[in-house]
Amino acid sequence: xxxxxxxxxxxxxxxxxxxxxxxxxxxxxxxxxxxxxxxxxxxxxxxxxxxxxxxxxxxxxxxxxxxxxxxxxxxxxxxxxxxxxxxxxxxxxxxxxxxxxxxxxxxxxxxxxxxxxxxxxxxxxxxxxxxxxxxxxxxxxxxxxxxxxxxxxxxxxxxxxxxxxxxxxxxxxxxxxxxxxxxxxxxxxxxxxxxxxxxxxxxxxxxx
Length: 208
What we know:
Layout: H1 2-12, H2 16-33, E1 42-46, H3 49-62, E2 66-71, H4 78-92, E3 96-102, H5 111-119, E4 123-127, E5 145-149, E6 153-157, E7 180-184, H6 192-201
Parallel strand pairs: 2-3, 3-4
Antiparallel strand pairs: 1-7, 2-5, 5-6, 6-7
């Protein structure tokens, strides 16, 4: 019986050549993605728009120092106004709130929508409006869907801020399937350089 347990224990051990290959693979992935593997993170899958919005709004509600939101589409509809109100409320509390939106993705959003957020203290900027660079620069769009709060929470994925992500299938009753992930732990800081790049293009500075 003891020998059998020893054999099983040995079978579970990772061979040295496998560990070596794993270390090399980790190094390769880190170089090509600029995102080295990190331990100690809590990652949650947000399966659809409703799940994502619940998680994002909860993170915004917990914010104590700053909120950075970067999204391709931020509509003036029920969901968009829910987020605008939540962000504006935090700005009024003294939390620094910055919103980046893509000019093309939000070209049908009325100026009054952004103006009300600015009046509440939210810093709002459009990425790549037509007059901000060379003629062909309009082709370059900001498709990020990214939220970072206080350096403690980050989320990214495919979900924009609009009622369209709340639509449910008539056949199954399930929400439109577009996913995101939320990150708590060491990995959330990896989202910050992306924000620095986007904010730098519109002439701003990221809070720390």
